[in-house]
Amino acid sequence: MKKLYILLLIVLLSSSLLAEEYDLTAANRAYQNQNYEKAAEEYLKTVDQGVMNFQLFYNLGNTYFKLNNLGYARLYYEKAAKFDPLDRDLRENLAMVKANLKDKEVDQKSFFETVLQKIIFSFSINVLAILILVIFILLMASIVLLIISKEGGLRNLSKILIVILSCIFFILVVMEIWRIRTFYAKDTAIILDETVIAYSGPSQDFQQVFTIHEGLKVTIERFDNDWVLIKLPSGNGGWVTQSSIGVI
């Protein structure tokens, strides 16, 4: 029982970290006036304050798209997707960015993975935390009802409720943990430079293995000083400079 309380506390505290107070008035005004460089500057000031949320990253993605900077546009769209990957406008904008990339990507997710993602991301981290708390309270109430009730229909009902609520509680906790782990994962990145040459080792002295372009999404394998080993969707790997990528 003590472990359940600790788990609930961790989940609720983790979700509360995503709520910040911020003012985007200046940035939004600059964007509306089509001063996109100023808008990006103002939005980034908010990011530098440690603010993380869907709207901020989505607005930054839109701003960089207007500036025709596909690398940064996709970077911030992907950051926004960590909050709500099912948002229709976000998905449409991401599709437009991908359509304009030099390096085309193929969605390698299976049907099962796609359906599972839609189910898990149907609720935000905060909503999941609230649902977990509600189900936990109902579960405790059912246990109390089982303890105080005598033999009969009420006792049988409480047993059924405990089984059902326990299953729901377990599923929601797993979903929340998976969402939090996905949110804080730093294992993917976007190529930011217009053209990037990858090498077989962490130095330009090594052999060139492939060339990639801005906007491509890659997997981070490991870091070595100013270099990072990345893996392409095709499975090929190579070393690029850290300054050429943006971690999602």
Summarize the helices and strands and which ones pair or pack.
Elements: H1 2-16, H2 25-32, H3 36-48, H4 54-66, H5 70-81, H6 88-99, H7 111-120, H8 125-148, H9 153-184, E1 188-191, E2 195-199, E3 208-213, E4 217-224, E5 227-231, E6 237-241, E7 245-247
Antiparallel strand pairs: 1-4, 1-7, 2-3, 4-5, 5-6
Helix pairs in contact: 1-8, 2-3, 3-4, 4-5, 5-6, 8-9
What does this protein structure show overall?
The chain has helices at residues 2-16, 25-32, 36-48, 54-66, 70-81, 88-99, 111-120, 125-148, 153-184; strands spanning 188-191, 195-199, 208-213, 217-224, 227-231, 237-241, 245-247. With 248 residues, the chain is α+β, with helices and mostly antiparallel strands. It has three domains: 2-99, Serine Threonine Protein Phosphatase 5, Tetratricopeptide repeat (Alpha Horseshoe), CATH 1.25.40.10; 113-184; 188-247, SH3 type barrels. Helix 1 (2-16) packs antiparallel against helix 8, helix 2 packs antiparallel against helix 3 (36-48) and helix 3 (36-48) runs antiparallel to helix 4 (54-66).
Keywords:
two-stranded antiparallel ribbon, alpha+beta, 248 residues, 9 helices, elongated, 56% helix, 3 domains, SH3 type barrels, Serine Threonine Protein Phosphatase 5, Tetratricopeptide repeat, 15% strand, 7 strands, 5-stranded antiparallel β-sheet
